[in-house]
Design goal:
The complex is a heterodimer.
Chain A lengths: L1 H14 L3 H40 L9 H45 L3 H4 L4 H41 L3 H49 L1 H6 L3 H53 L5 H13 L1 H4 L2 H5 L2 H15 L19 E8 L9 E8 L4 E5 L6 H8 L7 E6 L9 H7 E4 L10 H6 L7 H10 L3 H6 L17 H13 L5 E5 L7 H14 L4 E6 L13 E6 L2 E4 L5
Parallel strand pairs in A: 3-7, 3-8, 5-6, 6-7
Antiparallel strand pairs in A: 1-2, 1-4, 8-9
Helix pairs in contact in A: 1-12, 2-3, 2-5, 2-9, 3-5, 5-6, 5-12, 6-8, 6-12, 8-9, 16-18
Chain B lengths: L3 H4 L3 H11 L1 H34 L8 H52 L4 H13 L2 H28 L1 H10 L2 H36 L1 H6 L3 H53 L12 H23 L1 H18 L18 E12 L3 E12 L3 E5 L6 H9 L6 E6 L5 E5 L7 E2 H6 L7 H10 L3 H6 L7 E2 L8 H15 L3 E5 L7 H16 L3 E5 L3 H6 L2 E6 L2 E5 L2
Parallel strand pairs in B: 3-9, 3-10, 5-8, 8-9
Antiparallel strand pairs in B: 1-2, 1-4, 6-7, 10-11
Classes of the chains: A alpha/beta, B alpha/beta.
């Protein structure tokens, strides 16, 4: 229980940190609710009073009824109800969208702290696919879980106090019955459906994995004729999920029945008590009728509660996942600064890297020394450990054992800013953002002029292509740079790198996906740019070795081990 | 092959067909909803009658005890009908989703590996899991509520008309407005939903785009700016959408307005009528009973419509999801059906007769090819990448049906498939081996793993065969994964092996091991068809084919 609260707490605080908006939004919903109840109650009062006056007049008894005040009241409440509903919806949606911005800001802030192991771990696709959905779940929390119970409780209080002016006994009954109902449909409903609604999310993920399996293993499943076996697994999982959903749905339906039963029976009971009081002449008939109609109107405040609270476990699942992103085991902030602007040497001593959950180290006992200002190439197949080694040298991954020195400093102890300024890398998988060419380039240097951008595009032989584009530098590259070919995307990423001024550079496959002529052009540009920097190339294809400009060292990485190679030009 | 009809399936048709499958439950649910609504009418009429008796006729509450009890009974009966309404539609929605998912999974099987590799598996999983689940609200709530909305107001109108025809007339006059407002609400809500849907997904895409590129943002030290951008983008979206919301919320305000105004108008009319201020029509015969009843019924008249408008987003969500699912359902099937295979003489493993492959998107790819592979033969296929080796292998495997000609394979025979990236299931080693032989025992699995050179690794695993691998467990290197795939072949006893560059991405040790294993398999008498560049593999093949200018040529040695 307290563990659940602890998980929810930071997010709840975030959701109500805009306190004034929360209070005002809840107040508007409350006014809408009360206006509806007042409209119904006053109408009942008015009709009853009219009926009694009419009967009296017909019987020749002199009687008067002021029709203007209640008539005006009825029109007023009808208007307030409509207007308040409109404003309430507008206001609260504005709040929800503001909170969405807050939530995304907060979550993004956590994500900026994540290390490479987390960002590119095997589970990355899993959390990424759920991330926005989880944030939305929390966002919905505001209108489904936070505001309605507050409004319902305030409504019960206001209505009971109002009725207590004339009928304290009836008011007490209403307060107790609706108070208990409130507890039932919020806290108890949440507890009752918790494990099942939590399970629903877990089931969904299991089902998802099975479907991914069916898609990815479709060749094996067809050839081994085991499709039916795998399909039975899916059917079984789905049946389990559905039986869980069925139970949850029935619980919600039962709670809904409870709400209508309790509020219906309350109306009957209020009528009984009211009419008893009336027959004892303790209250006038219009007031008694009003009390009945008020009880009738309270139903509205409770209708949506069970369905929301019974699914609290699903929100908890979202919160848990978001919390997992933030509980990095070694979330310390490194502070070391890069020494000066001199060209640094790179050396490693018995460097090993072992990822959690793998049987063999990604890197083992790596020793090499690259003097300042020199260029090296490290070759290796995919999976040999190139990305891991690059990650360690860039300070993005922490070695499990051994030492690394870049310019005499251990790279993962450098502050994030210092790393960004002095170390640069062309990653194996380039990230382009859904923005224009210029915006993608200016990630490296927001102050770069258009002239500079054209220069770096020229350096990677993209200038002619870009000049042909009708929108030039403003051309959108599309999501994940999909509007560009793989080779163009790499070259754009390389051009972006050329805008920076680092001391250490790692280039992972700078020539992948480009033809020989372009590769030569890029190699020449790189030769110039790399002057006075220490650089390492990571290359898969040995055939492109001859393209590398000014390389004097060559190592080969094989299954996490590094071997010296004789360098032949 | 697929009929033209199913290829032009629209999302609405699909939803309708799904609903037809559960018509009884959905109708039952709507009926229960109408019955619950009629109980509400009875309760309201009863309340008004009781009030009239107690106040105007001076009855004591205790003399009306039985009516009170009856009313309480009606409340409980209404709850029972409501239960029926909700559980029936819940059950219908569950069954419909089960059927829809089965249909989609069948389709994915029929599309096969060739089509599936061109897709993002995460996106497909989304469609099978989330998009099918998005149908829930439509069938569980919107669909029955639409039927209720068509019935219940008429019932209320009849009761009101019986009590006071002017009130009924007032409600009736607003009745033609209901379809109008329904359309208005519908359009408003639909546009709102569509616009919001587009805007929200664009915004989410922006967010995910930045998260995905986090490495780059960190490398360039731009995380702080990007974080600010995320806030500004969302806030910008907020300001934009508030503009449309101002209009869109009018539709719900209009509904609220109608039901409030109905109460106000009826209250004023009844009040003045009872006071004798109104001289015309049925108002002279108004009583507290009839007056209160029509007052209480007036908002109920609009209630079904209001509920419907609350469920409107369910419809929008279902339509959106259905659209993406129907897109897949409309894809023409690729995989050869078992019934297309012709029977083959016992001495042949696989035969192609003038078979060619053409894709709808790319046109003619290979063929016509005639080829007979005898049992126990080792056949190597080579050729530049893109020359058609993989397509030929897919044709032999039945992943694509020949567009002309025939492919003959032994019916009901397993064959093994091995490519450069063996697929690992999310699960234990056992699950991964069962893929090749669902009935295999643990001993058989262990011996297969040992033969595949997985033994030393298995010995390191504390949980042995139960060890989870992949995303939720231990990560395997490419070489280890390939050994596991090899173990599948040993386990399956499949007489025919189709291999697509099995050694392409392996380190030297594993490469040597796999080549040795393939030779052993050939010695066992299994038939091997291997697409490969590897000279050692080609050397041991009994026959060697190569693609030259799109034609399959046998290389004679």
């Amino acid at each position: 229980m307290s563990a659940i609260y602890r998980d929810f707490r930071p997010w709840l605080l975030l959701l109500i940190q805009r306190r004034r908006r929360f209070v005002l939004g809840a107040l508007l919903v409350w006014v809408t609710l009360l206006a509806g109840i007042a409209l119904l109650g006053l109408s009942g009062w008015f009709i009853t009073a009219s009926a009694l006056t009419g009967i009296a007049l017909a019987a020749g008894i002199p009687a008067r009824l002021d029709v203007y005040v209640p008539g005006g009241g009825i029109r007023f409440f009808a208007l307030v109800r409509t207007v308040a509903r409109y404003i309430e919806r507008l206001y609260n949606h504005n709040t929800v969208l503001t909170l969405l911005a807050d939530l995304r800001y907060r979550v993004f802030g956590y994500l900026t702290q994540l290390s490479d192991a987390r960002l590119h771990g095997e589970r990355a696709s899993d959390w990424l696919s759920r991330l926005t959905a989880d944030i939305d779940t929390l966002d919905n929390f505001y209108l489904r879980i936070l505001v309605p119970p507050v409004v319902a409780l305030l409504g019960v209080m206001a209505v009971s106090l109002f009725v207590a002016i004339w009928l304290p006994g009836v008011a007490l009954l209403m307060a107790v019955a609706l108070g208990l109902l409130w507890l039932l449909v919020t806290l108890l409903a949440a507890g009752w459906g918790f494990s099942q609604s939590f399970q629903q999310v877990v089931d969904q993920q299991s089902l998802r994995r099975l479907v991914v399996d069916q898609v990815q293993a479709s060749a094996e499943l067809i050839s081994y004729q085991s499709s039916r076996w795998h399909r039975a697994l899916i059917t079984h999982q789905e049946a389990q999920a559905f039986s869980n959903q069925r139970q949850l749905g029935r619980k919600a339906a039962l709670l809904n029945c409870l709400v209508t039963s309790v509020s219906g029976l309350l109306v009957v009971a209020v009528l009984w008590l009211g009419s008893t009081a009336f027959s004892q002449q303790m209250v006038t008939a219009p007031i008694a009728v009003m009390a009945v109609l008020i009880a009738l109107g309270m139903n509205e405040a409770f209708m949506a509660l069970p369905a929301s609270f019974v699914k609290l476990g699903a929100s908890y699942a979202a919160v848990r996942r978001l919390n997992q992103l933030t509980d990095e085991p070694d979330a310390y902030t490194p502070t070391a600064e890069f020494p000066g602007n001199a060209m640094p040497a790179i050396c490693t001593h018995q460097l090993s890297l072992h990822y959690a959950q793998t049987l063999q180290p990604a890197l083992s006992n790596i020793d090499f020394k690259l003097p300042a200002g020199k260029r090296a190439v490290i070759t290796g197949n995919s999976g040999a450990g190139k990305s891991s080694l690059a990650g360690v040298l860039m300070g993005r991954l922490k070695a499990t054992q051994g030492e690394v020195g870049v310019g005499g400093v251990t790279p993962w102890q450098l502050s994030a800013d210092s790393r960004a300024v002095h170390l640069a890398m062309l990653t194996q998988q380039v990230d382009l953002f859904d923005a224009s060419l210029a915006e993608n380039l200016r990630i490296a240097d927001p102050t770069a002029s258009d002239v500079t951008l054209w220069q770096v595009l020229g350096a990677v032989a993209l200038n002619e292509w870009a000049e042909q584009l009708p929108q030039g530098l403003s051309t959108a590259v599309g999501e994940k740079g999909q509007q560009l070919s793989g080779g163009q995307a790499r070259r754009l990423a390389l051009a972006r790198l050329l805008l920076t001024n680092p001391q250490v550079v790692i280039l992972d496959e700078p020539f992948a996906g480009v033809d020989l002529k372009t590769a030569r052009h890029i190699a020449a540009s790189l030769d110039q740019w790399l002057a006075k920097r220490t650089a390492i190339f990571f290359i898969h294809q040995v055939s492109s070795l001859s393209l590398l400009p000014g390389v004097e060292y060559h190592w080969h990485l094989y299954a996490g081990k590094l071997n010296q190679c004789r360098f032949n030009d | 092959m697929v009929t033209e009809e199913s290829l032009s399936l629209t999302s609405r048709d699909w939803l309708k067909a799904l609903a037809t499958g559960e018509r009884k439950r959905l109708l039952g649910s709507a009926l229960c909803g109408v019955l619950a609504g009629s109980q509400t009418i009875i309760i309201l009429v009863g309340l008004a009658w009781l009030i009239d008796q107690l106040i105007v006729h001076g009855q004591s509450p205790s003399s009306l005890l039985s009516i009170f009890a009856l009313l309480a009974g009606c409340v409980l009966l209404r709850a029972a009908f409501q239960w029926g309404h909700e559980t029936l539609s819940l059950e219908a929605s569950l069954r419909i989703r089960q059927r829809a998912r089965a249909q989609l999974l069948d389709k994915l099987s029929a599309l096969g590996p060739v089509w599936l590799t061109s897709q993002h598996s995460g996106a497909l999983a989304n469609q099978v899991v989330e998009h099918i689940d998005a149908l829930e609200g439509y069938f569980a709530r919107f669909y029955p509520q639409l039927r209720i909305t068509l019935c219940l107001p008429l019932l209320i109108l009849a009761v009101a008309g019986w009590l006071d025809y002017l009130v009924a007339l007032f409600l009736l006059l607003s009745a033609p407005l209901i379809p109008l407002f329904m359309a208005l609400v519908g359009m408003g809500a639909e546009r709102l939903n569509r616009d919001q849907f587009v805007a929200v997904s664009r915004l989410s895409a922006h967010f995910i785009d930045r998260v995905r590129g986090m490495t780059t943002l960190q490398l360039f030290g731009r995380t702080k700016t990007a974080q600010q951008d995320v806030w500004y983008a969302t806030d910008h979206y907020r300001r934009l959408s508030m503009r449309t919301l101002r209009l869109a919320f009018l539709s719900s305000a209009v509904l609220e307005f109608f039901s409030s105004v109905a109460i106000a108008v009826v209250a004023m009319y009844v009040g003045f009528g009872l006071l004798g201020y109104i001289e015309y029509g049925p108002s002279s015969s108004l009583t507290l009973f009839s007056g209160l009843t029509v007052l209480l019924l007036a908002p109920e008249f609009f209630q079904p419509l209001r509920t419907l408008s609350q469920h409107y987003h369910d419809r929008a969500a279902a339509l959106g999801a259905a659209e993406s699912v129907v897109n897949i359902l409309n894809q023409p099937a690729v995989v050869a059906k078992e019934s297309d295979l012709s029977v083959l003489s016992a001495s042949s493993a696989i035969v192609l007769v003038d078979a060619s492959v053409a894709y709808a998107s790319r046109g003619h790819v290979i063929g016509p090819i005639s080829l007979r592979v005898l049992r126990g033969e080792v056949v190597a296929l080579s050729g530049a990448s893109g020359s058609g080796k993989s397509t030929l292998l897919a044709l032999l495997a039945g992943f694509v049906a020949p567009s002309t000609g025939e492919c003959r394979r032994q019916v009901n025979h397993q064959y093994a498939w091995l490519d450069q990236q063996p697929c690992l299931l999310h699960g234990s080693l056992i699950d991964n081996l069962r893929l090749a032989s669902p009935a295999a025992t643990h001993e058989e699995m262990i011996s297969a793993l040992n033969r595949a050179g997985f033994g030393p690794l298995l010995a390191q695993l504390p949980e042995g065969l139960e060890t989870l691998i992949g995303e939720r467990g231990v990560g395997l290197s490419g070489g280890q994964a390939q050994r596991l795939a090899l173990a599948r072949i040993y386990l399956s006893q499949a007489p025919l092996l189709l291999l697509d560059e099995p050694t392409a991405r392996l380190d030297l040790d594993t490469e040597q091991f796999v080549i040795k294993a393939l030779l052993e398999l050939a010695h066992e008498g299994r038939t091997l068809v291997i697409a490969t560049h590897h000279p050692a593999v080609i050397a041991v093949a009994r026959r060697h084919f190569t693609f030259e200018q799109g034609k399959l040529v046998e290389v004679l040695t």
